[in-house]
Amino acid sequence: MKPVFPVILALALTSPAFTQQVAPFTCHNNDLRLLDPARANDPELLARIAAADAALEAETASFDAASRGGSTYTIPVVFHIIHNNGIENISDAQVEDAIRILNEDFNKLNADWDNVRPEFLNIVGDVGVNFALATKDPQGNCTRGITRTVSALTDDGTQDMKDLIQWPRNKYLNVWTCAYADGAAGYTYTPGTANFFSSGDGIVLLHNYTGAIGTSSPGRSRALTHEVGHWINLSHTWGSSNEPGIATNCNGDDNVSDTPNTIGWTSCNLSGTTCGSLDNVENYMDYSYCSKMFTNGQATRMIAALNSSTAQRNQLWTPSNLSATGVSGSPPLCAAEFTSNSTDICAGSTVQFTDVSYHGVTSRTWTFPGGTPATSTDPTPTVTYNTAGTYPVTLSVSDGSTNLSTTSNNYVTVLANPGAAAPFAEGFEGITTLNGTVWTVDNPENNNTFAWTNAAAYSGSNSVRVVNTTGMADQIDRLISDTYDMSDADQIEITFRYAYAQRNASTNDDRLRLYVSNNCGATWSMRRQLRGSTDLNTAGGVVTSSFVPTQDQWGYAEVNNISSTYYVSDFRFMFEFLSYGGNNVYVDDINLNGTSVGVEELLRGNTSMVVVPNPASGSAQVVLDLASSGPVSLELLDVAGRTLDVVHSGYMAGGMQRIDLPITDLRSGMYLLRLQRNDRSEVVRFTVQ
What is the SS3 assignment for 642? Predict the structure, then answer.
């Protein structure tokens, strides 16, 4: 067959796994749009690529396989994980598993190679190429061979994404993992095409086709093997057409003598004879869903490409580059690091720590103040924390000659269990910061997030706000409560005030959600969602400037669909804001009742009154918004529903009214204010500090 001129090779994500025969994969053959759309059909560029391919084909034809002398080639690899703090931010272990599979497949160590059709057993190729994660970056600094870049371009997967980060292609095989790869499971470029695009040289791979663990699976784990085959100058077994299964593919070939002509497969038909002879359906370069081998001829072709200067492949495996990238010899210990399965637990729970120091750790010592055990030498110790508080963790490691240590202060937060007693009210009047009080802020993007503000409030002077901008689209921020003891509750009800505006009515559908947890925050269940396009927007329209609500631009939410499974001692609730690039969102006057108060008339519909400030200390007022004039009764009650004082009884004019509340002699705690008018009762709660 004629050489492939030029090639962008990709596995289209039309099937959830190689093992599932759902729909065929396709390739973006002869398509330069992911590299340089403006030049995708440039005759001059296409001619230069064709010449490079022809030259490499001539080198391959004259390559003396015997000159290799049985040596093994090692390729330094770097994985660039492009993520937006989603599941595409795969673990180091998943990357290491992908390297494991590559090394098995390219060295005839995969457990399934000897299960191929007997007719092909004697030509199963041992390519003799090893892949190793780099331990030195381009500047010679210590590395795991894994980088992480937070970017929304994880959902793009084109050259724009690759431009975020790339290490020199003559020193490393660059692999970018992401959430979207232009509709493909992965794609790359053969050397002849990559020769003219050094900044695009490498492999783009979906996170769920990387390795066989984590977000991936064994059925998807050979996608990287397939792409590396292309990267070292292999075509599909059927040749250069864009699709398998086409009869005219029999007229082509892949320029490998021991791979029979085939039209290509999208299912595992081991008896296929599409071009007059038995097809090598189990080849890694087919789409048969049962790939498990290269041929000897394919192995020779790849080694020829590694010995060619085309796209600088022959510079990767030289002794000097292996030393420069740190994959030869034993790398020194250069970082003490650890991770854990949680940093936020309840008293009596455990945290599992993992030593991820690198490289060559031979011994370690952990120190866990406040934990049991207090020290450990285990690489993955499990520690129990019985007392609420915030605790540091220290890890010291050694490789026998170098000693390193790291301490993370305030690493583990242990919440009380049982938690604080309900009822709870928060008006943000007694605090000026969130973290370190009864709230925890989760800010994955480390930019604008939930923060205390005195720019606006429904009651009092303060609230919490997310300064939301157009650049924050698709970002999530969370405000998480402390623990509360709801084990004796016969109902749980959460109410709050909120304010929000859209900047663009057609694109801003920001979401404010309320979640609850019955296991200290280990898992969460959504109980209310307010959307920017409907009920979240309290501004009554579009606001292009930074939104600051007026008193009448606040909404009210009441959440009571919380079942008895949440009547636990470590109950928590959480506000989550998902930005669609709209305007600021505010939250104020959060109330958690969770106890039987002996009053039946609990907030039926939107309330017409509010206590300010709330919590109150020393003095307070009730603000009434009466639709009409008439007789009004206003009573101060305790949480059992007993009347403590009659604040007002008699005629009152309609409109906005303010009345001082008699709280000077009240003890700290939760109280109720009951308004009765026109045969209707309303109750609000407030706290005296």
Answer: coil
Buried b (16+ CB within 10 A) or exposed e, 159-174: bebbebbbbbbbbbbb
- Please check whether residue 558 is in contact with residue 463, taking contact to mean a CB–CB distance below 8 angstroms: no
Residue type, 389: G
Helix (H) or strand (E) holding 160: helix 159-162
Instruction: Assess whether 227 carries a catalytic annotation.
Output: yes
| Partner residues linked to 588 by β-bridges | 497
pTM: 0.74
* Residues of the chain below pLDDT 50: 1-25, 27, 29-30, 595-606
Question: Alpha helix locations (H) across 429-556?
Answer: none
Strand pairing report for 73-83 and 173-178 = parallel
Query: In whole angstroms, what is the distance from residue 178 CA to residue 202 CA?
Result: 14
Per-residue b/e over 638-651, b at no fewer than 16 CB within 10 Å?
bbeeeeeeebeeee
Q: Which amino acid is at 156?
A: D
What's residue 112's pLDDT? 94
pLDDT in tens, 103-117: 999 999 999 999 999
Give me the sign of the Cα torsion angle 258, 195, 147, 28: negative
Per-residue tokens: 605: 């519909």
**Which amino acid would we find at residue 117?**
R
* Catalytic residue chosen out of the listed positions 57, 227, 426, 429: 227
